[in-house]
Amino acid sequence: MDKNADEYNRDAASTFAERVQWFGRGSKNIFSIPALLLISSFIGFSGLAIESGISMGQAVFMTLTIWALPAKVVLIGAISAGSSMAAAALAVALSSVRLMPMVVALLPELKGPRSRKITLLFLSHFVAVTAWVMAMEQLRHIPRDLRTSYFAGIGVTLVLTNACVVALIYLLSANFPPLLFAALFMLTPMYFLTSLWRSSREQAGKTALLSGLLIFPVMHAIAPGYDLLLTGLIGGAVAFGFHLYVESLRRKEAQKEVLS
User: Fold this and answer.
1) Following CA atoms 150, 153, 156, 162 in sequence, which dihedral angle do they give, to the nearest 10 degrees?
2) What is the pTM of this model?
């Protein structure tokens, strides 16, 4: 019995060591271009928060608990407009609904044979565009039972690093011109667009992006208050129709090959 117990302990220690190792590998993504662009955007977010009268503690708390940059911007906008707490909460929730498809797509890739639901629920907090793109590009090369550790390394490191960046910018804010904050803040949308294009595995995804870029100016002119929602619905419908068309062509080609 003692020997079996010793073997079990060694296996457990080895598994823990592997998880720490893969957590560290995930953390190394903080030195990538996407992470640096995200950090620069949080510098811009810090400038927005400072100009809006948000305290350093509040900005850091928002960074830790609301892990999606647009949602934080929406919250600051609601605070600046004097909206009620219920209205601000609803606005943040609606802005974060867009992350639900990412969570649905990512969690099956993360789930391993021993993954617990509480672990997956915790990791879902870190799902945002940057972390999602990093994970979806690399998870297929990582052992399934170690994917949660790898993604935890990405998510936890990004959140903690940007929380520290926000605090640092608050301390150094007098040395930064507002124009620099605005310029850095705009880097993230540009990165999101290029990253989503690169990570699209099907032509339908790229069709959705192109449709959104073309439709949004029209929707903004027609219905400014609902432009983003209408763009998503129409662009998504166009992409779905394109997907059905491509699939029908593939089926016809397959039938021709069978008949020939």
Assistant:
1) -120
2) 0.70
